[in-house]
Amino acid sequence: MSSTTFDFSPLPEQRSEVYGPNANYNQKRCQQLAQEFFRDGVRRARERNERQKEVGKRLEDPKLQPRREQIWAHSGKLEAKYLRFLRTKEGLSNYENVKTIGKGYFGEVRLVRKRQDGKVYALKRLVKTEMISKEQLPRVRAERDALAESDSEWVVKLFTTFQDTTSLYMLMEFLPGGDLMAMLITYEIFSEDITRFYAAEIINAIEAIHKLGFIHRDIKPDNILLDRGGHIKLADFGLSKGFRKNHDSKFYQDLLQQQQQPPSLSYRPQNRNSVNIDEISLTVSNRAQINDWRRSRRVLAYSAVGTPDYIAPELLTYRGYSFEADWWSLGTIIYECLIGWPPFAAEHPHDTYRKIVNWQHSFFFPDDIQLRPNAANLIKSMVCNSDNRLGRNGAAEIKAHPFFEGVDFNGLRRIRAPFVPPLTSDVDTSFFPVEQLPQTDNLLPAADNGGAATDAATSSSTDDALTPEMFLPFLGYTFKRFEKSFV
């Protein structure tokens, strides 16, 4: 038997430097689009197969035999709805603005109502130019991926993400109970039982994120929201850290062919060793000073500096860190719930940074507040060196601490929460500091114009008009969550 040989021409040498910028840009664009297209296609095919298997298992149940045709017909309608769902284009014109409920350095959060069905959501907007100039692209992607992949009852639900030429948008569930910080401002100190309840729920939330491979890195009362039943959900993953290629800043530098730039100085704690500024000496006797600190607390939350009270020291010293950094933050929150203020609170953020870095000398329990031994031991086991920190081997060892004896971590949502927000409507924002936020209407179209102006603006701007910097980093950002249900 004779063998056949083939002669192939040598592979052309790839010399991207000889092509123009448009050719290189289009090559990267096509590569990214192809990767995202096939990745989404495979994921959706798997999801449809899983739904089909689930329906098949239901049809095999003898108890459901009388409803067999009904279930099969319903599953077909569900898949038709899913295909229509994929074809539906999301945009600002689909929503009408209710009010602004949150504001940060890079964008804002608005309460919106969907025009089609009247449902209420929280819409987070991020400005693309700010994301690029402040080198936040890895964090934007990590936040999107963490929320998109999470299906936990302890994490705020992301329904869809979309974008236009200037901004990124994340449509999430609206949690009307406000945040844990508002409760701390109102009640100042929690009982040990109430603290135990919220701490247990936060543990479940942090554990859910860690299982997805993300470090939150910004666990603080402001990011712990309360739903209609008063149970918590973890939100705001803008500082979260993932471990994939597109969660690394080098990925975007290579993508845009930019030279490495030093991080913005706005995000480096300044004057960590300064001792010339007076600190707050927090005790029960100077409650007026504590209240002044609390009032300024909300202002700091909207600033570029942020609120460093809960950050683990390993994040500030540029040494290696891992998932245990989030458990330090929980320890400081438990401290605040029981004592009335965070353990490293100071009048200025850079003093807080200094106290955290030197926590061995600045961490103490006030003499005039006595904690039970289990509570004090739990806090000291979490606010300590990362090598010895409780939780470094997983959430299970925190759950096993004597402070949580008797807690059913799997049944927390079946327990009535200590505080159930009394709501008057589906757009009740009484538990948000909306009076401190500018209520401008320059983001969403008014309800009476049907969004025609926005539609026209959107249709007139295409992807082809975008520069590589405004297009390539945000490829694959779009996400849609299809809510499956059965009769």
UniProtKB/TrEMBL annotation:
Query: AGC-kinase C-terminal domain location, by residue?
Result: 405-487
What ranges does the record give for the region Disordered, renumbered to this chain?
1-21, 443-463
Q: Which UniProt keywords apply?
A: ATP-binding, Kinase, Nucleotide-binding, Phosphoprotein, Serine/threonine-protein kinase, Transferase
Q: Which reaction does it catalyse?
A: L-seryl-[protein] + ATP = O-phospho-L-seryl-[protein] + ADP + H(+); L-threonyl-[protein] + ATP = O-phospho-L-threonyl-[protein] + ADP + H(+)
Instruction: Show the Gene3D superfamilies listed in the entry.
Output: Phosphorylase Kinase, domain 1, Transferase(Phosphotransferase) domain 1
Q: Which residues cross the membrane?
A: none
Q: Ranges of Low complexity compositional bias?
A: 446-463
Q: Which InterPro entries match?
A: AGC-kinase_C, Kinase-like_dom_sf, Prot_kinase_dom, Protein_kinase_ATP_BS, Rho-assoc_Ser/Thr_Kinase, Ser/Thr_kinase_AS
Query: What are the GO MF terms of this UniProt record?
Result: ATP binding; protein serine/threonine kinase activity
Q: Which residues form a coiled coil?
A: none
As recorded in UniProt, its EC number(s) are: 2.7.11.1
Under Pfam families, the record lists:
Pkinase (PF00069)
| Annotated binding of ATP, by residue | 124
Q: Where is the Protein kinase domain?
A: 95-404
Q: What class of enzyme is it?
A: transferase
User: Is the keyword Acetylation assigned to this protein?
Assistant: no
The answer to keyword Cytoplasm applying to this record is: no
* SMART domains hit by this protein: S_TK_X, S_TKc
PANTHER family per record = CHROMOSOME UNDETERMINED SCAFFOLD_135, WHOLE GENOME SHOTGUN SEQUENCE, MYOTONIC DYSTROPHY S/T KINASE-RELATED
Q: Which family does it belong to?
A: Belongs to the protein kinase superfamily. STE Ser/Thr protein kinase family. COT1 subfamily.
Q: What is this protein called?
A: non-specific serine/threonine protein kinase
Q: Which organism is it from?
A: Podospora didyma
